[in-house]
Amino acid sequence: MKLDITVKADKHTEICTACAWAGADLVSCSDDKQLIKWGNDGEFIGTLATIDAFVTSIAWYPDLGKRSANMFACACTDGTWRVWTLTSPTAAREEKKVTAHTGAVISVKWSHDGSALISAGEDGQLKVWSRSGNLRSSLASSAAGCAIYCFVWGPDNDSVLWAEGKALHIKSYQGNGRKATSWAAHEGVILACDWNRINDLIVSGGEDCIYRVWDSFGRQLFQSTAIAHVITSIAWSPNGECFAVGSYNSIRLCDRTGWSHDRKRPDAGSIMQIAWTADGTQFAGAGGSGAVLFAQIVERKQEWRDLEATLVDPKLIHVQDAGADAYERLDFARDRVVEMALGWQHLVVATTTQCFIYNITNWNTPHIFDLKATPQTIILSEAHFATLDPLNGVTIFSYEGRQVSNPRFNGMRSENLNRQTVSLCKDCVAILDRADSKSIRCFDVNTGKQLAGNLSHKTEIVQLSLNQTASSVQERRVAFIDRNRDLYLSPVTSQPGIFRGSYKLQTQVDTIAWNDTSDMLCAVADARLVTWLYPNVCFVDRDLIAATTFSRDASEFGKVPVLTSFSGTRATVRRADGALVTTAIPSQAPSLYQLARQNRWEEAVRLCRFVKEDKLWGCLAAMAIQGRQLDTAEVALAALGEVDKLEYVLYMKKIPSEEGRSAELALYRRCPDEAETILLQARPPLIYRAIDMNLRLFRWHRGLELAVKHKKHIDLVIGSRRKYLENTGREETDKRFLQFAETEVDWEAIEAKIENEIDDERARGGSIAGGK
To answer: Least packed by Cβ within 10 Å: which of 213, 429, 449, 690?
Structure first.
């Protein structure tokens, strides 16, 4: 990413102190006491008003989708803050003046919902006001009388972050939120800070000429080297992907890890304030020389296989196909490009008003449709793509431009959604419920209706991702990372008696990515690159997890790496310094997945014999058990030397009925309730096998309950219980079994009844040789 900067220095005659976006236009103020309005490309629109005081800060009322954002507040050096409204596109009127502080009011900011406003002053006071100008509370009062130069509302619209001297403080303004936190942040006075709503990260800078990135607990994630001048402004992009740092004749664009993508030296003096547009594609800066700076982000790149799409100009995209040595030029003369995404044979481009859908086989005739709101993010999948915007939330479209669905739920906070909290596949979309951050809601793509059962976790979730190649919603899996950096895997739907909850795969995980052609899952965890060749093994046979996991050292990725793609056997990681590193996963697992999907099990066995890799045999064993291919599972387990599992598979093959084998497979997967359901729903029900299964699992009460209900094999349950107690040297104390103390146990009669049932099952099940 790079910056394309335009400097306008011919309108303000004194230092420009503040600026704010009013929709697509910018309003700036200066010590010449003029409020000037600009277009988004820097053209002068007009002077809105002349004010009788020096303005230090402007805060535009948040646009809540009601088209009422024609009001703004400004802070003044005479100790007041004032409310203005636009009476026309080129005129504004002062509506209210509130005396707030002793000395200058340094900054004012509206809450995210516009219900409150906070002001900070030279007197060290931080005050909360109602929209009508009534004082609600005093949030902070500096004991040393230090001025509060910067503050920001937190993502939850309740917490407030502010700087006091060299320290940062977080506190709930209503008193019922998070615990107050303070930490020493810089070696000089802090002049600028910001807290992003999407990624929950904090940036700060000040007189020590250093900017730092923090998490919301005050833990430092990045520290820059000292730059030449004091940092006077800093601000996150709304999408949380990058932030801008302003200094004397200097502006930097950094990604979320702190690495600097670009630095420009505009002749604008110290950048006093930075204001981003809502779509995150450009920002403006108020210059100390009186100049107003307009910066557009260009050189944004998207890569997929042999294709690379580059935004070289706000209205121009270059597409290069390295494989075919072809080059395409996509010109958008009407509007500037806001967002783009490349993948799954398509390039989707969103401008401020329209969406263009290109098929990579035909760049000349894209599908085009008008947008209801400008998207902040575009997410692609095999059959659909999704746009995220604060007004409509998540909207699903087909690649022909037809709207498919618009998933919603009560309490959905659309403005906080991004790529880490929304994931899309061909039949499902998963959305993190930011109201509590512990629940994932999954929706059917075609109808927008919520699937059965929410996924709830005990800890806040920070990232989620759906696998892409599962054949049905029942086989769909979601991987997620919680705040403790633990990685879990879970089904997206719950089924009575079958849902097994989530399973912890790994700890200390930094980033994850699913493979685009198979269900392999890759993660960077604790300085190692870990690849689960068949992650669904945790729901099939957890003993085989190690036999299906590939791990190697990943210290070359450095700190805070990000997996950008995982295609075929190649994973691409972006390091903290911005470099892209591609690494190979030495496995034939994608070929094995393809053979298993096509039920070509004999060829899969031949592939494993040719490769002679234990991890591939482990994958084949788990896939065969999941696919109920006992012959293939027998070969794979034998190759792995898993004698106990091999014996159990041989036992299952001898069971005469299909229901009996299905039940044993469910029991193998540690799902006894599912196994019992299969046996009881058979026609006729396999009562003996259901009772025997419970006895083998020492579920005595359930075994007795089934025997009494069906009036069969009560003597078997009582006899097995007595043998168990004799072998363990214990006496019967359970009242339910004491009721049957007089039951006569004749093992010869019991064996005869069992043999008769097995014969009936064998006759019904076909020619397969039977046995217990």
So the answer is: 449
Could you tell me if 305 and 319 lie in one domain? yes
| Angle, CA 514 vertex, CA 508 and CA 520 arms, to 5° | 95
CA dist 215 → 480, 486, 558 (Å): 19, 17, 19
Other Cβ atoms less than 10 A from the Cβ of 606: the count is: 12
Question: Which strand (E) or helix (H) includes residue 328?
Answer: strand 326-331
Using an 8 Å Cβ cutoff, are 225 and 542 in contact? no
Asked if the structure places residue 184 within a domain, the reply is yes
Bridge partners of 525, per DSSP, are 509, 528
Output the six-digit token pair for 68: 């009422």
Strand partners, 236: 243
Give me the residue label for tokens 């619209």: 157
Taking the C-alpha atoms of residue 767 and residue 772, their distance in angstroms, rounded to an integer, is 16
Provide the percentage of residues in the chain whose pLDDT is more than 70: 96
Type of residue numbered 68: S
pLDDT tens digits, one per residue of 352-409: 899 999 999 999 999 999 998 889 899 999 999 999 988 889 999 999 999 999 999 8
Structure tokens at 632: 């293939």
Amino acid at 335: D
The Cα 744–Cα 572 span in angstroms is 69
State the distance between the two ends of the chain, measured CA to CA, in whole angstroms. Answer: 67
SS3 704: helix
Q: Residues of 559-598 as b/e, b for ≥16 C-beta within 10 angstroms?
A: ebbbbebbbebebbbbbbeeeeeebebebbbbbbbebbee
Q: Give the residue from 393, 397, 515 showing the smallest Cα distance to 465.
A: 515
Query: Both 106 and 90 in a single domain?
Result: yes
Is 223 in the same domain as 284?
yes
CA distance 107 to 122: 10
Phi, psi for 577 (deg, rounded to 5): -90, 5
Buried b (16+ CB within 10 A) or exposed e, 643-668: eebbebbeebeebbbebbbbbbbbbb
Phi–psi pair at 435, nearest 5 degrees: -65, -35
Q: What is the model's pTM?
A: 0.84
Encode pLDDT of 47-75 as tens digits: 999 999 999 999 999 876 554 568 899 99
- Asked if 258 and 357 sit in the same domain, the reply is no
Laid out side by side, the sheet with 201-206 consists of 190-195, 201-206, 211-215, 220-223
Reduced to 3 states, what is the DSSP secondary structure of residue 474?
Answer: helix
Q: What is the dihedral of CA 359, 363, 364, 367, to 10 degrees?
A: 30
The CA radius of gyration of the chain, in Å to the nearest whole number, is 32
d(CA 591, CA 533) in angstroms, rounded, equals 12
Which residues have CB under 8 Å from 684's CB, separation 6+? none
129 plus 225 within the same structural domain: yes
Residue 279 exposed, middle or buried by CB count within 10 Å (0-12, 13-18, 19+): buried
* Main-chain phi, psi angles of 463, to 5 degrees: -155, 145
Give the domain range for residue 328.
Answer: 299-371
Q: How many CA atoms lie within 13 A of 24 on its CB side?
A: 12
| φ, ψ for residue 695, nearest 5 deg | -70, -40
Spatial contact of 32 and 312, defined as CB atoms under 8 Å apart: no
Angle, CA of 516, 518 and 521, to the nearest 5° = 80
Same structural domain, 182 and 313: no
Q: Is the domain of 244 the same as that of 306? A: no
Stretch among 337-341, 575-579, 689-693, 750-754 having the lowest mean pLDDT: 575-579
Among candidate residues 322, 337, 371, the one where a domain is terminated: 371
229 and 365 within one domain:
no
